[in-house]
Amino acid sequence: MEIxxxxxxxxxxxxxxxxxxxxxxxxxxxxxxxxxxxxxxKMTNTPLKGVAxxxxxxxxxxxxxxxxxxxxxxxxxxxxxxxxxxGIIMGANIGTSITGWILCLSYIDGSxxxxxxxxxxxxxxxxxxxGTIMRMICxxxxxxxxxxxxxxxxxxxxxMQTMSGAVTPLRESKVFIxxxxxxxxPIAGILVGIAFTAVLQSASATVGVLQALxxxxxxxxxxxxxxxxxxxxxxxxxxxxxxxxxxxNGKRTALVYLLNDTFGMxxxxxxxxxINAFVHFDFLDNIMSPVSIALLNTVFRLVTVxxxxxxxxKLEKLVxxxxxxxxxxxxxxxxxxxxxxxxxxxxxxxxxxCHRAMSGMAKKLRKNVNRAMNLLNEYQQSKxxxxxxxxxxxxxxxxxxxxxxxxxxxxxxxxxQTRQVSLYLHTINDFERIGDxxxxxxxxxxxxxxxxxxxxxxxxxxxxxxxxxxxxxxNLTCKAFLENDxxxxxxxxxxxxxxxTLCDELKMRHVERMSSGGCGLEEGTVFTDILNSFNRIAAxxxxxxxxxxxxDKENMDTHIHDSKVYPSDSAExxxxxxxxxxxxxxxxxxxxxxxxxxxEVE
Length: 602
Hints:
It is a single chain. The chain has 602 residues and is mostly helical. The chain is 77% helix and 0% strand. α4 packs parallel to α13. The longest helix is centred in the C-terminal third of the chain and has 37 residues, at 415-451. It starts with a helix and ends in a 19-residue tail after the last helix.
């Protein structure tokens, strides 16, 4: 019964510690707002700055895992390069050791004088009272968050006191002494450190438990050292879990965290115990205190970073080798490699490279629009996920191409080149907006699948007719751009007008069905939203093709470029308009259309 009570008290102390650390960290992040993320992003142009920043940020938010997960998000979104992330992760490993020094405050004790004033119980009580007052009385959100920080600190200190009180009787236990002696075996100690930290999901918490055990006066260096070696590897578990849904670079970033601690563990264990086999260190039986635990943890992490820092480039190559790119991903990156900075001094070459990269964007856009529309007729979660993944890629094209074209405008160009760059900027914006609407169609398909939303047969037939028209328009748009075919481009605007007319007509038909009870209000809203997205895709396709057709005009005002500006007075326009009106006429012949396009079709 005594053992049960001791374990329960220890676990309650751990729970208070973890909650206090979480509350304090969340409060600090709320007070800082987005400044921490902004610092991580902007101040990492050199590895050394990355290490310093990672150390500072982790010292503030008290969690290397939280810092690393934040960095994974940056790398995953393409905002930060993998090499920048490695430096921050190394710094995060140093910063997380600061918690151990803060915890040393909870072991200040005394019965009178200044020691009593500075005792952990007094500090925790004062901080808790101030934090509670700020949390309850202050009206400003910032002040409330500061109150949360102070409450978190007080709870953390209380948790440490609870853990220490729980394990104090163990100093007289022979079983416990024998168990700690077992941990002197390096392999057993390392495995305990890994397992315990993986369960707690916090390196700081494990160090805190070690500090609590040290008050028994029987924890030696030989027992504590291997556990500290294993702590870093165990702390990588939540980071690895957070990278499950990330892209390849996000997974590589998480792997850097694991490898950094694994290499540190191997270097220290092999080096230390090999030397000890010959020298026989006489400090192995030294009794550890909370301060010496904090010092050992900090020195271990600091020296590990110093040893690994010169090998950042090698570490980057290693994780890229372990997590290889697929052929498709290599193809995507090849398009971005076309945007070579050194070619900016030669506008003609740079513009040609932009067109090649935009061609890659157009191909992926065409596939994604068709993939998204397929989901309406045949929903598959894997296809939905792919639509969103490719939408992120299309956004990346727009960002990278936009940045490159803006840089190009700062170089001397002739009138034709200036006009071409301006039109390309308009076109990539149209392409990106088309991608957004494709993503929205996919989300609506997902909602329909989850809510089991169904249209009437007439509504499905009508929707599929418009879908076929949209497929033809996006295919024409991308093919005309790839081949610079202005004759083909002339077909897009009249087809877009037919789609607009169809969408307006189908909305009226659906209102009639709703009035007669053939369709419900929820179905009507979804139906209208899908048609609106089709209409916007059509408008942006026409807008992009207006730019293509006007690219050779000498006196065109490049600032006047709107999706509503169609060359509707030409004979070709009227011919194509009549052709598409007949082709996509809504008929009541009893035949049911199902618009699908295989993904592999080019």
